[in-house]
Amino acid sequence: MCGIVGYVGRKEAAPILLDGIRKLEYRGYDSSGLSVWDGDFSDFKAVGKICELDKKIAGRPIAGRVGIAHTRWATHGRPTEENAHPHLDCSGKIRVVHNGIIENYQALKTSLRDRGHEFISETDTEVIPHLIEEVYDGDIISAVMAVVGMLEGAYGLAIIHADEPDKIVVVKRGSPLILGIGPEEMIVASDAAAVIRYTRDVIYLEDGEIAEIKDSGYRIFDGQARAIEKNIHSIEWDIERAEKSGYPHFMLKEIFEQPRAIEDSIRGRIIAEEGLVKFGGFDAIIDKLREIDRLVIVACGTAYHAGLAGEYMLEEHAGVPAEVEWASEFRYRSPALGPSTAVLAVSQSGETADTLAAVREARARGAFTLGIVNVVGSTIAREVDAGIYNHIGPEISVASTKAFTSQATILALLTVLLGRQRRMTQGAAREILEEIKLLPFKIETILKQSDYIAAIAAKYRDAEHFAYLGRKYNQPTAREGALKLKEISYIHAEGFASGEMKHGPLAMIDEDFPSVFIAPRDSVYEKNLSNMEEIKSRDGRIIAITTEGSNEIEVIADDVIYIPPTLEMLTPILAAVPLQLLAYYIAALNDRDVDKPRNLAKSVTVE
Ligand code: AGP
Predict the structure, then answer these.
(1) Please, what CATH class does the domain formed by 240-446 belong to?
(2) Which pLDDT tens digit goes with each residue over 200-225?
(3) 243 C-alpha to center of ligand 1: Å?
(4) Residue 603 C-alpha to ligand 1 middle, in angstroms?
C-alpha cells in the first residue's frame, strides 16, 4: 500500500532514498517524505507524486548517510503534508515510516493524549514515535520491541532515534520488508525494485522479526528478542526489468513482455514427451495432491478472473471439482472445507490483505493451502503450505496484464499435473502441453496488431459504457477485459456471460453502448454469434475477438480482432491480450494516468 526505503552506509543517503521511493511509487503515490540525519534531522514532505518532493528538495543539499523515506497511499487521514511520513514524537528525536494499518491506534492515541502527547496528523502511524518516546531508555531495539507488543494490525516500520543515529531499526508484521546487503551499506525497502540498483543480496524478513541495520552490517531478532540468522537470497531481476524500457508506460511494456512472461512461467516445468508437469514447490506434496477432492481458489480482481478460467480447466480436463471465491468474501463467510479440500491463493503481489486473510482462514480451518504468487518471498508465498512462483519479474503497472496470462497458464499446467494423477491420458496431456509451449509465439502474433487495435480504440474512445461478453472459458475473459478498461480509463464497463444478456442487460444496448464479444471458434461459437445478432438488431456496435479464419463474423461485428487458433481451454490467455491493448489505447487516448490510475494502488495490503 505504501513504500518504505531506509539507507545507512558510506554514501549520501538522500539520492538513494529518493531513487528508492521512485521505484516504489506504484505502491502508493498521494504524498511522500524523507528524513536524513547529519547531526540533526533534515525533513522534507510533499503532497502528490514524488516529483513534488523533488521540487521541494531541489537546490537544497541534504547531507547525511542515514535516512528513511516513504511514499504513501492514504488509509487513515487525507493526503496532506501533516499526514505524510516520516512521523515524529514530541521530543523530535524519533522518525518513523510505516506501511500498513495500526488497528488499535485510536485507543493508543487517546491514552497518549491523556499523558500529554500532542499529535499533528490524522494518521494511525503517528502513535508509534510517541510510544517509543515513552519507553525509550537508551536502547532503541528494546524500545521498539516493547512498542511492537502494543500494536495490533499490519506494519512494516523503519525507525531512527537521534540518540543512536548510526542505525535504523526495522520491524515486519503483515507488510513486506526486505534488507539489501551491500558493501559497507544496508538498504531496507518494501520490495526489490528499490534495492536491486545497489545490491542483489537480500534478506526477506518474516512476521514478528526486528532488524537493526548499520553501515557495518545487521542484526536480526525474532519475536522473542532472540538473535537469529537468515538466508541471503540473490534477486534474479536485472534493473531494466524493473524499469521501463522505452515504453511510454509500464503497462504497455508489461503487455509486450507477455511472450517472455509465459516462457518464464513454464520454463523447466513441462516434460512434454511424457505428458507431465513438474513444479519444484510441489515436490514435497505431490502425493498429497492426489488426495485432493475439491479445490477452492481465493483471489481478488484480475487474479480472481484467472482463477475463474482455471476453474473451467480443472473441472473439464482434470476432473477436479473447483470453485473460485473472492478472497474478501471467503474470509468472512464460514466456508465448508472438507479434509481433502485444498485452498489455492492466486496473487501477483503475494501481499493482498484479503487474499492473505483468506489463506489464514483456510489454515485455521485445517485446509491444505497452495499458492500461485509472483513476488518471491512475499507473505502469501511464505504462508501457504506449498506454492508456485510465476517468475515473470516485477509487474509495476497497477493494471495487471502479464500476471493474468501467467496465472492462467500456470493453472493450465496445474490442470495437467492434477489431471495426470487422475484420468488424463498421456496423449491428452501432451496435446495441451505442446499447445502451451506455442502460446508465446501466438501472443507475438497478436501484439503485431497493436497499431490496428489502437485504431479501433480511437473509434470507441468516447463511449461512456461498454458490455464485455463471453461464454465458458471466456466469461472470465469478458470480466477481465471489463476490469482492464474501467480501472485505467474510468469508463464504465461490465463483463457478462453472453447468455445472460437477454435476462436484463440487453435493455441497456443501443448505438451508444458498444459491446466487446470474446467469441473464438470454440464449442460455444455459434451461441455467441446468436448473441451478437441480438445486439446488432438493437443497433449495438460490436467489437469481436475471434479466431483467424472466422471471417463470417465480419458481417455482424463492426470491428474484428483475430487471434491464432488454440485449444479452447487456452483461449483466455490469447483473448486477454487484445483486450489489454484496447483498454490501454482508450485510456492513453483519453490522457489517463495509465500506470497509476486514481484511487487505486498496485498492492492492496489493507482491507
Ligand atoms: C487488476 O488489474 C488490479 N490491479 C487488481 O484487481 C489486482 O488484480 C488485485 O488487487 C489482486 O492483486 P494481487 O494479484 O497482487 O493479489
Answers:
(1) alpha beta
(2) 999 999 999 999 999 999 999 998 89
(3) 20
(4) 7
pLDDT for res 361: 96
What pLDDT band is residue 360 in, cutting at 50, 70 and 90?
A: very high
Q: What is the DSSP letter of 314?
A: I
Handedness of CA 468, 474, 475, 477 (dihedral sign): negative
The backbone torsions φ and ψ at residue 198, rounded to the nearest 5 degrees and listed phi first, read -110, -30
Whole-model pTM?
A: 0.73
Per-residue confidence (pLDDT) for residue 23, from 0 to 100 = 87
Helix (H, G, I), strand (E, B) or coil at 528: helix
Domain 3-235: homologous superfamily in CATH: Aminohydrolase, N-terminal nucleophile (Ntn) domain (3.60.20.10)
**Is residue 2 annotated as a catalytic residue, yes or no?**
yes
Tell which atom from ligand 1 comes closest to the C-alpha of 401. 2
Predicted pLDDT of residue 533:
95
Give residue ranges with CB within 6 A of ligand 1.
300-303, 347-349, 352, 355, 398-400, 483, 487, 603-604
SS3 of the chain: helix, strand, coil, percent, to 5: 40, 25, 35
Gap between the Cα atoms of 289 and 284, Å rounded: 10
Ligand 1 atom closest to residue 403's alpha carbon, by position in its atom list: 14
Note the pLDDT tens digit of each residue in 299-340.
Answer: 999 999 999 999 999 999 999 999 999 999 999 998 999 889
Average pLDDT over residues 501-509: 93
Which residue among 175, 298, 300, 355 is best mutated to probe the pocket of ligand 1, counting the most ligand atoms within 8 A of its Cβ?
300
Domain ranges in the chain with CATH number 3.40.50.10490: 240-446, 449-607
The three three-digit cell numbers of residue 443, written as one number: 501472443
Q: What is the pLDDT of residues 561-593, one digit of tens each?
A: 999 999 999 999 999 999 999 999 999 999 999
What distance in Å separates the CA atoms of residue 119 and residue 113, rounded to the nearest whole number? 8
Q: Which atom of ligand 1 is nearest to the CA of 301?
A: 6
Q: How many whole angstroms from 433 Cα to the centroid of ligand 1?
A: 27
DSSP character string of 13-44: HHHHHHHHHHHTGGG--SEEEEEEESSSEEEE
Domain 449-607 has CATH 3.40.50.10490: yes
Site to substitute for ligand 1 among 1, 331, 348, most atoms within 8 A of C-beta: 348
- Chain region(s) in the chain for CATH 3.60.20.10: 3-235
CA 300 – ligand 1 centroid, Å: 6
